[in-house]
Write a structure and sequence with these properties.
The protein is mostly helical. 80% of the residues lie in helices and 0% in strands. The protein contains 12 helices and no strands. The radius of gyration is 20 Å and the shape is globular. The two termini are 31 Å apart.
């Protein structure tokens, strides 16, 4: 609920920000992910119970922040949005809008990308352990991921200026995902994992903020939350299917797993292209 609302509020809080508004939410999320385990480790030294109390205090802080600071036109209720009891026709129209071709295809592409990305959390550490690579080396990959995201923002800003179209950013990032999995399927050794993580990080920096930005670009204010909910759900669907698919293919070895993920990322690219055509067709019909 929180991530969906933040993505829905981002373009309202930063009018004209476009992709940058969603990128700010994405970077803030990464900062929290990086600092959270460190803070939890320090607090856990006094007892694990304190980690839950600290987490509760942070959530209370979020509640107070929203209650007191989220004010002004950006946080006002959209006129006419949710007014009155929805009629059967209104509910049907909303359902059609949510599962319309363009939104549905965009969500499907994101889910396919997350199916592959989930392998970094599930099958990859097992493959590394089977190759005799120590656990700290796997943890170091995520340190590299966070550092690249935070320090690589100037590079991403240059890339975005070079290819300002959101569609181009999504397709470029998706192509990087394909290259990453092909590299993992064909290569061996820790340097291959490092190079693949670099590619994966570049791909996610381009795709993760761009997909919600693309969904928002052709969405009215009254549907913003609902459409961002579909996009958020697509990411969770990919994270749900990815570990299951990787587990089924695990016995076939890393080459098979990562080649299937390369195919999934390539299919995502085709879906993104189909989304763009569906959006153009819908705009022409309107």
């Amino acid at each position: 609920i929180v991530f969906t609302c933040l993505n829905a509020l981002a373009p309202q809080a930063w009018p004209g920000g476009g992709r940058d508004a969603f990128n700010a939410v994405y970077v803030a999320f990464i900062v929290g992910v990086a600092l959270g385990p460190v803070a939890a480790g320090l607090v856990a030294g006094a007892g694990f119970r304190w980690t839950f109390l600290a987490a509760g205090a942070l959530l209370l802080g979020l509640f107070l922040l929203v209650l007191r600071a989220y004010r002004g036109p950006a946080f006002a209720r959209v006129a006419g949005a949710g007014a009155g009891r929805p009629t059967r026709e209104g509910a049907r129209a909303l359902a059609v809008a949510l599962v319309g071709p363009a939104t549905l295809l965009l969500a499907l592409g994101l889910a396919l990308d997350w199916v592959g990305y989930a392998q970094w959390l599930t099958t990859t550490p097992n493959f590394m352990a089977a190759q005799g690579l120590a656990l700290p080396l796997y943890s170091l990959l995520w340190t590299l991921n966070g550092a690249l995201i935070l320090l690589g923002q100037p590079l991403v800003l240059r890339l975005v200026r070079w290819m300002p179209a959101v569609k181009t950013q999504i397709m470029a990032g998706n192509a990087v995902f394909v290259a990453e999995f092909v590299l993992l399927a064909l290569g061996r050794g820790y340097p291959v994992y490092v190079a693949a993580m670099v590619l994966s990080t570049l791909g996610e920096m381009l795709v993760w903020p761009a997909v919600p930005a693309a969904a928002d670009r052709w969405t009215g204010p009254e549907r913003r939350g609902a459409v961002q909910g579909v996009v958020t759900m697509a990411g969770f669907v990919g994270r749900m299917i990815g570990p299951l698919l990787g587990g089924v293919l695990f016995a076939a070895g890393p080459s098979a797993v990562f080649m299937v993920m390369a195919v999934a990322a390539a299919l995502a690219g085709g879906v993104y292209l189909a989304h763009d055509r569906a959006r153009v067709a819908a705009a022409s019909a309107a």
